[in-house]
Amino acid sequence: MTTPPPSANTLDLRPLMFETFVCTLAVMSFVALVGPLARKLGLAPWQAGAAVTVGGIAWMLAARPWGIASDRHGRRRILLGGLAGFALSYGSLCLFIVLALHWTLPTLFAFAGIVLLRGLAGGFYAAVPACTAALVADHVEAQRRAAALAGLGAASAIGMVIGPGLAGLLATHGLVLPLLVTGALPWSPCWRSGAGCRARRRQPNRGAALAIGDRRLRRPLAVGFVAMFSVTVAQITVGFFALDRLRLDSADAARVAGIALTAVGVALILAQLLVRRLDWPPPRLIRVGGLVAAIGFAAVCFADSPPLLWLAFFVAAAGMGWVFPAVSALNANAVRAEEQGAAAGTLVAVHGFGLISGPLLGTLLPNWTAAPLRAGRSAAGAGGVLAEPTDAPVETRRSTMTAVDLLLVATLLAALLAWWIPALPGHRGLLALASTLALGAGLYAAWDDRWQAGVGAFAGFSLLLGACLRRKPERGLPFRTGSLYGLLVLLAIAALYLFPVAPLPAPRQPYAVGVRDFELDDPSRPGLLGAPAGQPRRLLVRAWYPARPIAGAAPRHYFDPGEARSTARGFGEILGFPPLLTYLKHLRTNSYPDAPLRDDSARLPVVFYSHGYSAFAGGNWTLMEELASHGYAVYAIQHSGDASPTRLPDGTLLPMDPGLVEHLRRAAHDGLPQAMRQGYVSDDLDQRLDGQLHTALDLPAPANRAVNLSAPVWLADRLFVHDRLQAGEVPDRVADLVAASDFAHTGEMGMSFGGSTTGAVCMVDRRCAAAVNLDGGDFDFAPFDSDLPAPLLMLHADLGNFYRLFGIEPPARPRSFNDFSYERFEHAGQRQDIHRLVLRDSAHAGLTDNPLFIRRPLRDGLLGSAPTEVLIQAPNALVLGFFDHYLRGRANDFPQAQMARFPAWLTRYDNSAVRDWWLAKPEAQRLALRQRIDEMKRRKTGLDLP
């Protein structure tokens, strides 16, 4: 016998609202404090995130069991138990953290304790929304349930708003006080719990629990998930929207995002209070609320200022404030009285799944200008097409996935959902269709150079095969096969996540950037570096410059399709995986091909650039854009033969020199020669000097290729290009740019082997006014034991990582491989215009654009573990500040001002140990060594260099 539905409101909501308010306030207070607490306890950011996430997972998993238990054992008993458990576990969590702060517990122990207690608190907290919603269904008539549930929603929203504010206010007196206060608060509802639910008794449910796939729950569960998912996606993207669309700095973006989220809380409160005064049925509330939310989310896409963004979020949240209580009422109205607990718990679990999956996918698929719009569309189920605004040419999207990536992920998730829920209407057709689409999307993406999608294609094929072989659905949930397919889908998403295709970060200066490619030929040097005999030295030059934007113009891609098939694949072949970088053809830069030169451009400061050995001209694209956006003309030379395959503007392909390929393969197989190991990682400076002198003169072939063959060719390339540009002997397509450039005093720059070339250029070319070496050695040996005639920025990657490349544990004070270059030994470390700096936790290849293309933790060993922003922005800031100071003569407090932006990552390198070592030697020994050095330099360069 079931209890008939109530005919009148017999419930006092005030105790339930108070319980909801206090519990939500406590949870949100912890979320606000977790970052500072993690820093105090020495926890990593991911550990802080895990402490928050585990509570959400426990809440999601425990909600349905709590609801079922309330059906069988009584609402008041279960609610009291849940509240007491939450108060005890949350209070224990706060007390544990206080003790951990006081006693300085080991990091691992502190992390384990926080995760355990936070998980327990989340699990007990799940009883509150499940039981309170069921109580409302027990005691409130159907047509008034939405209004009653809106009261609970308003109480929760008030807790969401007040919790972080209260924690922040109390934290002004230290982190212990907010922990003690919020840890004690959850005990207050326990004394009055159930006071409002004694007026009506209900027959316990002793039968089977309500099934998850019950047809009656499908509609409210689907709407509830989509609504919660949409809200959390929008919330997680608002900060990125402020950064990328509104073009704010990090501090302003955080402030704008915080106000937007506060507006969400206020709107939820007001909207749910309004619902209490309306007499609308749940379906009408959902339709109207969804429409209002869709309007708000769509308005976000048109917001071009913080106030408009706040207003749009307020409107969207107001609509959702009508949807949430209506969904809960719809859920309650769909089942019998003895099933209310199970129904409420199931809906809470679905909300929890939306809360967890929303932030996850919101960070995986962040097309920041379109994510709120997508969320609004899904929330409202809106038909038709909403047009997105056209950005100005200098703005770019922030999307980490291609459209096919998004289709692949969506279809894989749909297929996985159909596999896990056999009771879903039409699940066989959905499974077959979604897995087929996933297979097709994955195969197409892999064919289109998005090789990471191959994992998704395999997952789609596996799901399709399972659909064909599955004779009948398993009873209950298919945990074994579902977990296997879930793992495959997770791996497929991870492959796309770890290799993003987000556009390059926009330069900090708002000027548009143009890019042009052109060819220069030197007939006086035929047949070099694998070129056919008699073929002139053909060079690709790529120029970045301040441009005048054209409405509707689109930035070029990192690689065009031809470069993806040649340059990118060639570079991948060197690393043993040809497709490695081909997917970068889907990535947009901020540079507009052949854009007109800015009208006010005249005597633009010029920087010449050379790439690393076997690399390509665009390897430091973000740095080039940063310089060009500040008014520089940057000319990058691709040293054909020693570079990845070079595609000239006319389509001609210049392959890599087979000798280079053989040299690199031998080096990878045999390791570096003993002379180089001694010269670059020995602790003894005498051994270092001897090893480097042997490296300069005595390496056997092919190990000596870079020193004996490549170094002089690259130096001649740089001088030739400079001379031709200064003479104006260039193709017509760049004549205006060249005419507007100042070639009398130039900046010289290079990455890796290109950095070595830069030092050689400045030793022989008096037009060099400033030099930058990005983690390059000195393979020309012209600056060896010599005073460089120009100021120098020598930026090292983490020197400890350099030692590890040789399999050697770095010493306490690692030495630089350029200790003997750019200054005479007797005053090494004393020149004020020689700046030697080290970027902590970076690797050699991390001083290029590469950190933007591979995410942590996969990139840590290859590129360094420093944050991507540091790896990209720190070199950019240093190089720009250096050239501004020494090439433009600006008083910008270089390098102190630039280092102050990255105090934990940039350190000076003191080279005075070379001076002390040298001056400690007897004069006769110094004379003998200097004669040996001078003889080496004469043999290497043919010049008597100082």
Task: Report on this structure.
By secondary structure, this protein is α/β, with parallel strands linked by helices. The chain has 4 domains: 1-196, MFS general substrate transporter like domains (Growth Hormone, Chain: A), CATH 1.20.1250; 214-382, Growth Hormone, Chain: A (Up-down Bundle); 396-498; 512-554 and 589-647 and 733-940, Alpha/Beta hydrolase fold, catalytic domain (Rossmann fold, 3-Layer(aba) Sandwich), CATH 3.40.50.1820. 56% of the residues lie in helices and 8% in strands. Strands 3-1-2-5-4-8-9-10-11-12 form a 10-stranded mixed beta sheet, sandwiched between helices. A two-stranded antiparallel sheet has the order 6-7. It starts with 12 loop residues before the first helix and ends in a 5-residue tail after the last helix. Mean pLDDT is 84; it is low at 1-5, 193-200 and 364-398.
Short synopsis of the structure:
The chain has 31 helices and 12 strands. With 946 residues, it is an alpha/beta fold. It has 4 domains: 1-196, Growth Hormone, Chain: A (Up-down Bundle); 214-382, MFS general substrate transporter like domains (Growth Hormone, Chain: A); 396-498; 512-554 and 589-647 and 733-940, 3-Layer(aba) Sandwich (Rossmann fold).
Supply database-style keywords.
946 residues; alpha/beta; Growth Hormone, Chain: A; ten-stranded mixed beta sheet; two-stranded antiparallel sheet; 31 helices; elongated
